[in-house]
Amino acid sequence: MAGFNVRSVLVTGANRGIGLELVKQFLEKSNPPEWVFATCRDSEGERAQQLKNLVSRHPNLVIVALEATDLASIKAAAARVEEHLKGSGLNLLINNAGIGRNGTLESETPENMSLVYTTNVTGPLLVSQAFLPLLKKAAQGSNQKGLSCRKAAIVNMSSEAGSITNPLIWHVGQAIAYRCSKAALNMLTKCQSLGYEGDGILSIAVHPGWVQTDMGGFTAPLTVDASVRGILNVLPTLSEKDNGAFVSWEGKVLPW
Q: Which regions in the chain score pLDDT beneath 50?
């Protein structure tokens, strides 16, 4: 991770879990980004307190209100980030915000299916659309050849639970809406890789592991710290050969 020099990064769903740890580890780097944008739904409320504590020590951290299911909120967030960047682009967009539900084949509801899909798939699509001009600007302003997370990239936080070939931990919970949403997010990532490659933007889906978070449960085998350290070690190794891929926190290519 020491060689991972990225000028600006934005993390959605950054007030807890993996998102919060991503922000912390970016800030703790010996060569931290010039700007770290941390988004959450309620940027002024109690849920953002840990982020607000970090701001007092890290002037390069900016907390931005963003509700991933609200287009007006997304557009307002993009405008605020653009103001801070002062003409430069956004190098790295990490679509981390997401929700999970534990519905089974027998109990799953239309409401759950719709809510989870809207948050986990439509949200990353809309956020990526809103920040695309800034990602393009970063790519155009870079003297690096090829594709990379240092230049311009969209990282979608997926899950192997959405793998059709290997649906992770089915025995623990069916989580129908969540699994279907992550399979769809993987397809969105593939579509983004095809659509944005010509703009110099890398698109990747990342499985963070089964992690000890509110969503993953605290019997999960992987700590948040270890997962994020793995992710931040993998991201700088990715290039055009990985565009559109589905990779784990350890850098392994996973089956769709």
A: 1-2
Positions annotated as catalytic residues are 178, 182
| pLDDT for the residue numbered 2 | 46
**Hey, what are 137's tokens?**
């600007």
- Look at residues 186, 172, 248 and name the one whose alpha carbon lies nearest to residue 216: 172
